[in-house]
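Exercise 7. Given the components listed, write out the predicted structure of the assembled complex. Treat all entries as one system.
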Amino acid sequence: MAAFEGELVIGMDVGSTTVKAVVVHPETKQILWNDYQRHHTKQPEKVLELLEAIHAAFPDQPKDKWRMFATGSGSGPICAPTGAKFVQEVNSVTLAVEHLHPDVLSVIELGGQDAKIIMFKEDSNTGQKTASTSMNDKCASGTGATIDKCMIKVGAEPGFATSLRFDDSKLHHVAAKCGVFAETDIVNLVKTGIPKDEVLNSLADAIVLQNLSVLTRGNTLKARVLLLGGPNTYLPFLQDCWRQRIPETWRDRGYDYPKDIPLEDLIFVPKNAELYAAFGAATYGMAEGGDAGKLLPIESLNHFISHGRRARLGEQAGPPLSAHANETHEFTDTYKIPKFKPATFTPGQVVRGVIGLDGGSTSSKAVLIDEEGEILVKAYQLSKGNPIQDTKDLLASIQDHLTSQGATLECLGFGATGYAADVLEETVLADCNIVETVAHMMSAVHFFGDIDVICDIGGQDIKVLFMKNGDIQNFKLSNSCSAGNGMLLQAMADQFGIPVTEYAENAFKAELAPKFSYGCAVFLDTDRVNFQKEGYQKEELLAGLAQVLPKNVWQYVVQIPRLASLGRKFVLQGGTQYNLAAVKAQVDYIKQRVPGAEVFVHPHTGEAGAIGAAIETLRRYKRSGKSRFIGIQPTLDLMFKTKNDEETVCHFCPNECKRTFIDTQRPDGSTSRYISGFSCEKGTVESKDAMLALVKERKATAAQFPNIVDYEANRAFERFYAPEPLPAPGTIIEDVRVTKGIFRIKRETYRRPFERSSEEAAKRRKSIRIGMPRVLNMYTTAPFFRTYFETLGIGRSNVVFSDQTTEDLFVEGGKYGSVDPCYPSKVVQAHIHNLLFHKHEPERKRQLDYLFFPILTHVPSFVLDTQDNTSCPIVAGTPDVIKSAFTKEVDFFAERGIEYLDPALSFAEPMLMAKRMFETFGKRLGVTEDESDHACRQGQKALALFDQDLQDKGRAILETVEDEDRIAILVLNRPYHADPGMNHGIPEEFQVLGYPILSIRSIPRDREYLDRYFKEELENGTIKNPLELNHIWPENYSANSAQKVWAANFAAHHPNVAVLDLSSFKCGHDAPTYGMIDQILQTSKTPAAALHDLDANKPGGSIKIRVKTYAHSLRLQQERLEDVAGRKRDLSHAIDKKRLELLKLKQQQLAATQSQDPEIARSIEELAEKVTRYETKVPVQVEQPKGIVRLGRKATDGKIVPVQSNQSAQQVAPPPAE
Amino acid sequence: MTQQVVFDAPKKRALPIAGQATLDIDAELAKFEADERARLGLEKEEHWVEDMANLMFTKSEKSKITLLIGGLTMAQDYLIGASFTHLGYSTVNLDVPNEDALRVGKEFGNRGQCNPTYFTVGNLVKALITLRDEKGMSTKDIIDKYVFLTAGACGPCRFGMYVTEYRKALRDAGFDGFRVMLFQQQGGLSQASGEESGLELNPKFFIGLLKGLIAGDVLNGIGYRLRPFEVEPGATDKAMEQAKKNCHDALLNGKSILKALHRSKKLFDAVKVDRTMVKPKTAIIGEFWAMTTEGAGNYALQRFLEQEGSEADIQFVSAWLLYNVWELRHDTKNRATLRSEDKGKQSLAGAGEYGVFTRQIGLWAADKAIRAGFQVYAHAAGFYGYHLPDMDAIADMAAPYYNNDLRGGEGHMEVGKLIVNVAKNKANMTLSVKPFGCMPSSGVSDGVQSLITEKFPGTIFCAVETSGDGAVNFYSRVQMYLFKAKQAAQAEFDKALEETGVTVEQVKQYLAENPKYAHALHHPEHRAGSTSADTIYEVAERINTTRTQRAVRTTKRFLQGAKAAFSKAIVGAPETARTTAAFTQQGAKELLDIAKEQGPGLAQKGLEAAKSKAAQVLPFKRESAEVRKAS
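Answer.
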C-alpha cells in the first residue's frame, strides 16, 4: 500500500438522518476512531464537526496525510469541498461485509429512506463469490422513516419498541409496499383499539414479508444472514421477525441450511452495525491508488458551507410564497383565522346544547353548540389510540370548562362522525353517525350558505366536494396514493425541529422555493431529501412543500384542470388550513385559475366535521325532541375492554379475520360489544345462529338485487355447458387442404372422414389432471378452456382451478416474485403456489400432470371498431414471469413431475389459436387435430353461452330498474376485478344498500335493446352501431380498456345506471382512461364513484367513506330520477296525444282532397287505444326477459312481475340522516 | 284531466285548400316536443364525443403551417427537421424535454401515466404555452399555424394510447382543437374532408425521414464511441456539432448526405483518443424512449455514464425499425399455412394466395434496405465495425424465456439483448432503463431477466426506473452496478495484458508509433467486453508477431475458412444440388400452373401487390384497422 504511506483513511457515511465516520489504518485495517451523530439536515456542518474532531483526536497526524472516502445518500455534495471520493453505499457495505464476514451469504440493510439486499453467490465454475445487490422500488422507500412515523402513531413510549419481542399470534394486515399505505393501515388499527405491541409486530411482519417477496427478486436469502441498518439494529422484534420468516422460506424452498447453528447466529446483527458503510467506504478507498480522496484543508468545506451551496440554486428554483413582506402581511391579515374565544358562563348557569365529535385520523375534536347553533366550547386532542378513551377525554374537557366556571351542562344530544363514529353509535348510543363528507358539507353550508366547492385537507385525507343547490353533487377523495399530505407538512416541520404552528412564519421568509412535482407523500419526501442535498434551506423547503399542496389537491386528486368550471366560491377547511403557508399557496393557485374567485377559510377549520355532526344532532333533536345518548357522565364512567385474541377470530369464512371486540359496560349495567377488524359482514356477528340469520337475510337481498359481478366470477370457472361429443370416426367433414409453394399458398376445400384418436389414448386422458390459475384474463376465457378439455375427455373434476384470491392465499404463496407489478398480476404466484402445494396431491392419486397458463395476447371484445384487441402487456406476459420465478433456483414444476405450459394464444384469431392448442396438446393428450379443433369450437360455444347468460340477466335488471325508476350500479373494471380478492367486496357493499350490480359483460348488446339509448348519435350519423367507440376514443388497442370505456359511455346513455369505477394500483392501462371516463360521465351527469389504486389490502376506511358518501349522492339521484321519469311520462303521453291530434288533422286534410291513407287510419286506431289506456291507467305488462332470471316473482302465466321496493334491504343499511 | 284534443271541432281550423302545403306531422311534433320539454324542464341529454381526433391540415393551408417536431434524439430531430424543410414544410424543433415539460405534463395529464408520456406531452404543451404567454400569440393563431407531427405509436402498452393524452392535455391547457398528426392516420384524411391533406406521406417524405434517422444514428454512434476516450475534453462534441451542421445543411438544401457524412469523418478522425484508458462498456437497453432520450427523461443517463468513467453502448432507432419489420415477418410466417384466414390485426386477412410471398419479399427487402442504408452511412462517416443486431438471433435466444408473440415495448428484445451481451461478451454491464412502472419492461422483462442472471452467473445487469424526479437514487443505483462493471473491466484488462504478455507502456508506445491504430475512428476487433481490452489484444498481437507471421496467419485463417466452406459445399453438394433442383423445378411448375390459371394480367397484378406490400413495411404505415376496413 505504498500510495498511502503515512496516511490515514477516513470513511464518512452521510445518511438521511445521521453521519457516521471511521478512521482506518490502511495496513492493519483497524478502526482507530469512530463516531455516530444525527445531522438534523445540516450534513456539511456535521461533517465539518466530525473532521475537526478527527484532527483533534490525531494531533500528530500531518493535515495533508489524510484520505477520505464518502458514502451514503447525502454524501454527494460534500465530496467536492472535502476532496473525498464518492463510494456508492451498497458497494461500501458489500466491501465491509466481504472483509469482516467472509461466511455471510446475505445482507439485509434497512435504512431511513431505502432498503437494500445483498446476496453473495458462488460461481460454480470459478468458485468466485459475486455479490448481487438490489434496492427497493421507489414506492416502498422510506422503510426506516415509516417505522419511525408509526412508532409515533401507536404512541410507543421510549424503550417500548427496543424491548418488544416478536409474536406472530396476533397479526393484522398492514401494507408495507408503500409508506403511506402502511401508515393508513396503522392508523386504522390504532383506531380500532389494537394494542400497540400487536400493531408494531404487524408492521414488522409486513415489512419483512414485503422485502422477502419483492426485494429478494425471488431469490432465497442463504445463511448466514447479516442484518444491518438502524431499524434492524435497534428493534429486537424486527430481528425476531426475520429469524422467523427467513427460515420459513428455507423450508418452503428446500434450502438445506446448517441446522446445528442456532438461529441467532444464522441471522444476526453484528456489533457496530451502524459503521459498516463507513468502514466499507474506507476499505474501497484503500484499494484505490493514486491521489484518490486526498483530503482538502478544512477551510474548503467551511467556504462551501458559507458560500458555495446556494450559488447554483437560483436558476432551478421557483418563486417564493410571497414576493415581499407586505404581501405576506396583507395576506395574513385577510386570512388569519380569528382566535376562538370559548363562551364564558356564570356560576349556576345551566347550559343547554349538543355535542358533535369528529374522530379523525390523527386527532379527535369535539364542539359544544347551543340551541341556536353558536359554538360555545371546543376540545381537541391528538388521538391516543382508542376511540372510547379519546371521547371520554374530550367530553371531560368540555365538561371541565363548564364546571370550572360553576356552570352545568344539559346535553341535548350527541353526534359523531369520522373513524370513531361507528363505535360511538354502538357504545354511547350517539344520536347520529354521519359520514365525514356530509358532516363537512353541513358545516360549510352552515357558515357560508351557497358555495361551489369545499376542499377539506386533513392529516391523511383530502376531500373535495362539488356543490349544487346546497348539497353534494359530486365528490373526489384522495386515495391511498395521494394521502398523507397534511401529515407531510407536519412531518416536515418536525424534521426541522420547528413546531407546526411556526411553519408559515418560516415558509414566508423564503426568497425562493424548490419546485416539487406533485405525487404521493413518499415521492415528495424523496424529493425533499434531494433538494436538501442540493442545499436548499429549511424555509425554502417549507415554502416549496406548501406550494405543492394545491397541485396535489387539484391535479392529483381532483383531476379537473379547468378549475373555473367548478364554480367561483371555494371554502377551505380541515386542520391544514391553520397553516397559512398552505392557505396562501391554495388561494394563489385558485385565484390564478378562476377569474373572480372567492376563497374562504372555514372559521373553525379543524372542527368542521365535529360542527357538522353537532348541527345534524341539533336538527334531529329539534325535530324529535329527544335523544338516545346515554349522557356525559355515564360516558365518562363507561367501562370498556378491548379484546383481540384467538377467541375473536372470525371463522365464518376462510378469510379468518382477526377481529377486535370492544366490550363496554355502561353505568346502568347494560353492555354492548363493538366488533371491528372484519372484512365482510359475516364478521359482525358472534354466534353461528346469528351468522346463519344474517346469511339468510343477505341471500334474500341478493336474490332480489343480483350481483352479476359476483355471479360472473363464479360462473366463469364452473361447468355450465355439456359439450357436444366428438364426432364418430369416419363422419364426413369438410376441410381445407393447404399447399405451400414458393410463390403461393393454395387452399382447396375437400371432404374427408373425421379422424379419431385411439381408445387407449382416450382412456389415458381420463386420468389426466390439468391445473389452471384462477387469475387475470382467465376470468373471461376460462369457459373456453374448461370446455376444450372436457370435450376431449378430461374428467370434469380433473379440470382444476386454483382457489379464489384471499389474503391468506397471497400471504402463503406470495414470496416468489421478482417484480412488483399490479396486484392482479402479482397474486398469480400465490395461485400457482396454491396449485402446486394444495391441488397437486399425488399421495391421493390426485396429481396435476400439466399446469396450463396460456399467454393470452388478445382477448375477446364486443366493441366493434377497435384498432386491436390486445391484453395488457403485463397480464399477457405474466405466464413467462411466473415460469422464471418458479424455475429460477429450484424447478418447482419438474420437482413435482408437472409440466408447465404457457403457449401464446390469441382470441382474435381462432384459426391460429386452434393450431396452437393442437401444437400444445395434440401429443400430450394424444388427440388428433380434428378432435382438438372440435374441442376449440365447443370452447367458443361455451364462451358464447356464458356471454348470453350474463346479458340476459343484465337485461332483466336494467329493464326492471328502468320500469321502477330505480338505479343499478355498473361496475367499470377489468375482468379480473370480479375476483372478490381483487374487488375486496366493494360491489357487495352497494348491493346490500339495495342496488343491483351489473358487470360490463352483462350489458345487453343486441341492437333491438341498445339502439333506443343511442338514438341521437345513430340518427345524426356519429355512429352506425351502438357498439362503436372510435367517436369517443380512437386509441382503443386494449380490449379490456375499450370495453370499459364503452361501458362508461353506455352508463352515460342509460338514465338508471350509476357507475362504480374500480382500478388497481399501478394499472397502466386504466391510467389513460381516467380523464376520459370522467369526461363521459360528467357530460351526461351520470353519478359515479371511483376506487382507484386497489391493492392487496382491503382499504376499509377508504371504502366506507366512499360508499357512504356515494350512497348519499345516489339517493339524491334516485329522487331526481323519479322526478324526471314522471315528467318524461307526461312528455311521452303529451306527444302521443299530439300525434293523434295531428294524424286526425291529416286524415281530414286527405278527406278534403278525396283521398285516404289506410296507414294513417291504422295509426290513429293504435294511438287512440294507447291514449285511452293512459286515461284508464291499465298497467303495462313487462315483457318477459330472456334467460334464467331470479328477479321478482314469476306470475302464473310465466311472466316475471318486477319486484316492488324492498323493505328488508333498507333495513340492512339505515340511511345516514339528512 | 280531460282530453285536450277536441276531435269534433274541426270547424275551428281552416281546412287546407287544395294546392296548399299539407301537414308535416314530424316537423310539428318536433316543435311540440321541444316546447313541451322546455315547459317540463327536461334538459336535453348531452353526451361526450371526441372532436379532436383525426384532425388534419389541407393542402391550401400548407404554406401557413409550421410543423413542430420532437421525440427522438437531438441529432435526429435536428436532421429530420431539415429533411422536412427541404420538402417545403416550415418546421420547428422542440427542445429536449426537461423537468418543466414533466411538470406541465403532470399538470394536464392523467394520473399514473408513464413518464415518456408526461415528458413528451408536457413538452408540446409547454412549447405552446410559451408561444401564448411569452410570445404573446393568441390561442387561435397557435392552433391555426402550428401542427405537431409525430410517429403513431400502436400496440398494447400505455404508450400506444399517448395520443389520448395529447388531446386531454391540450384541451385542458386551453388548446382545444390543436392538431396532432400521426404518420399512420393518413388514410382516412382525404375521405373525411374531401380536400387533400397538406401532409403528403409520399416516398419522398419517408426517404427524408429515414435519411435523418439513420444519419442521426450513425452520428450518435460515433459520438458515444469517441467521447469516453477523448484526450482533450469536449473535442468530440465540437466535432459533432460541426458534423451535425454539415448533415443538416445537406438535407436542407437537398445535397448529398453521404458527402456531408464523409466530410464529417475527417472532423472525427482529428479527435485525439486514448483507448488504453480502462472504461467498462455499458450496454443500454430498456424501454425505447427512456433509452434514447438524452435529457431529463433519463437523467441524461448516457452523459452520466461517461462522467462516471464508462463507455455507453447505445441502441439505434434503425434497430427499432428492424424490430418492426421482424414483427411483421414473424407474424406472417406464423400464419402462412393456416387453413383459413382469421380477422385479427396481425392476421393475413385479404392477403390472398400470393400475399404471403409478396409480403415476405417486401419485408426481406425492407430489412436489407435498412441495413444497407445504415452501413453505407456508417462507412461514409467512419463508424466502422458495427453491425445492426440480427433480429432472428435475438428472437431465438429470447424465445425459451420470453415468448416471441408477446408484444409491447421492446417485446422479447430486452431479454434477447441481455443474453447476447452476456453470451457474446459484448459489454461489461447491461443497463436496462425504463420509466417507473413500465408495463412491458418493469412488469415482464425484469421478471424474466432475474432468471437470465441466474442462468448466466457473473452477469452484471442493472434494471433502473426513471420517474422524472429523484435523480439521486437513480444515479446511486447505476453507480452500484458500475462499481462491479469497473472491477470486471479492470480484471478483463489485466487478463488481456497477462495473456498477451505486454505492458500498457508497450501498447502506448506501439500506438504512438503506429497512429493508424490510435486514430479516433479506428475500431479494434471485438474480443472482450470493453474497448480497452480489445485494444490490448489487437495491439499485443501486432507487437508479438511480425508482419510476415500475421500475413501467414491471415492467409491460414482465410484458407481454413475457405476449406471449411468448400468441404461443406462438397459434402453437402449432392444435397444442395438436389434441393436446388427441386426448388427450381417446383418454382417453374408453380409458375406454369399460375400462368395457366391466371393468364396475362398476372404480371401486372404481381407488380402492384409487391408495390403495396413494400409500402406497408415501413413501420409508420402499418395499416390501422380503420384503413384496412375502408379498403
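Discussion: Chain A touches chain B through 144 residues (CB under 8 Å). The first helix of chain A runs from residue 43 to 57.
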